[in-house]
Amino acid sequence: MSILVTGGAGYIGSVTVEALRATRESVVVLDDLSAGHREALSPDVTFYEGDVSDAPLLRNIAKRHNIEQVIHFAAFASVPESVGEPLRYFGNNTCRLVEMLRVLRPCGLRSIVFSSTAAVYGEPQSPVIDEEHQKRPCNPYGLSKYFAEQILDWSNTAYGITHVALRYFNASGALPKGAISADSPARGEDHRPEGHLIPLVLQTALGQRERVSVFGTDYPTPDGTCVRDYVHVLDLADAHIKALRYLRDGGKSQKINLGNGKGFSVREVIETARQITGRDIAVSLDARRPGDPSTLVAAHQKAAATLGWEPRYANLGDIIQTAWDWHSDHPSGYVSSSLPPPVTKSAYE
Ligand SMILES: NC(=O)c1ccc[n+]([C@@H]2O[C@H](COP(=O)([O-])OP(=O)(O)OC[C@H]3O[C@@H](n4cnc5c(N)ncnc54)[C@H](O)[C@@H]3O)[C@@H](O)[C@H]2O)c1
Q1: 29-84: per-residue pLDDT in tens?
Q2: Which of 62, 224, 303, 306 could form a disulfide with 107 if both were Cys (CB 3.0 to 4.6 A apart)?
Q3: pTM exceeds 0.90, yes or no
Q4: What is the DSSP letter of 305?
Q5: 94 alpha carbon to ligand 1 midpoint, in Å?
Q6: For atom 13 of ligand 1, which residue has the closest CA?
Q7: Under a CB-based contact definition with an 8 Å cutoff, are residues 190 and 11 in contact?
Q8: Whose CA is nearest to atom 11 of ligand 1?
Q9: Bridge partners of residue 175, in order along the sequence
């Protein structure tokens, strides 16, 4: 039996694949490389290049690898892009999940760990958000994930397919070389275009950007800039492995926040990055962006109680140090090399 990891060539997926391999799980990756990188997967990972809604390909994978559990990372994940292209987001993040479930259900799918997001909550009604907080997503991205959560609920009711929907706050940091096992590779964040604060700050430190924008300095926070919860990508990977085992042991479906439980302001992130990199990081103080809440911090007690998960890299300095090590070693991100071709659909038809 293998675990199917969709979107495993992306940022969080590729770190989770390495963590799974270190626990001796058999892993199969399906990714269409629309945003992922072949180089983010070790050459010996079984990799299928294709779309999660490609029914013949999925059937082949399910049959050949005896898939009972899926970790579903594959999605588009940019809030501003989703506002401009909502149909693309509902299509990929919601409709293709339905297609995938329709194919895998009769093939023996038992449970799924789903990448959800803090964006399902919408405008926060309290500075610290627990899972019971109202769900009023205020952009197509958040809504596409909230629809997906409800589709998973009804799939549980009707077909008994269980799930853990992990609502991540801000994924951050990188996997240092050798951090999981003696020969585990480095993995990091390489979104094109990049929209996340920490990589933008570090690209500025590397001289790849002139300055980093600070959107709003008059929020009701200690230093006037937005406060966010940054959760280390290796902690996210660990939570996925715990969620897989929880479901395998018969655990019932859950929605669970994954956050650090602490908030850091934009100014704190930039100042910490200045200290770690020893570089000057120019900023431009810009107007607030519409829809940016002042503070977003996760209550993470449910993850501890249900999965036995606690963030181990909760310190902002550790998060930024690992990200800096990755960015300074990979200033151009993942670069193409001669890796084995994916296992394609045609190989099995
Ligand atoms: N990065 C964050 O801070 C964050 C926060 C909350 C939730 N999430 C969610 O976590 C997941 C992973 O995020 P990430 O930052 O690693 O993103 P990413 O873009 O790096 O990874 C997504 C991967 O999915 C692949 N993909 C997309 N659509 C596909 C399809 N139809 N078929 C096959 N492959 C497809 C892409 O090629 C990419 O490799 C996403 O579902 C995202 O919504 C991310």
Answers
A1: 999 999 999 999 999 999 999 999 999 999 999 999 999 999 999 999 998 899 99
A2: 62
A3: yes
A4: H
A5: 13
A6: 12
A7: yes
A8: 73
A9: 187
